[in-house]
Amino acid sequence: MRALKIAVSFAAVTTMLALSACGPNCQSTCNRLYSSSTNSAGEEDCSISRPGRSDTDLIDTCMTECEAALATPGEIGAYDPFVQQGQNTSIELENERQAVLWMECIEEQSCSRLSEGYCAPVK
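Above: the chain sequence. Below: its structure as tokens.
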């Protein structure tokens, strides 16, 4: 029983560290995907566009979905953003662990890979 409490505490601390300012957050992730500016590291953002939707709309929707996932506890389950998804596949971030893994994937992948279906969801 004590080992379980330690494991749960470790998982909580790990999640909190992952959500801290040291790594990506919803804002930096959504801006990387949809903004057409240069980020704080001096790298160009991906400027992914969608017909009929402005960059601002895409960023706002992304932020809303990311923050909602972060507010929901849960397990990663079968979610794997590092596997390429087809255009007809619908992926939703369901919880904080999936959101953290998604943000890390966005940070690590090139813009061309993001456009090719990696790190879903990219809407």
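The chain is about 50% helix and 0% strand.
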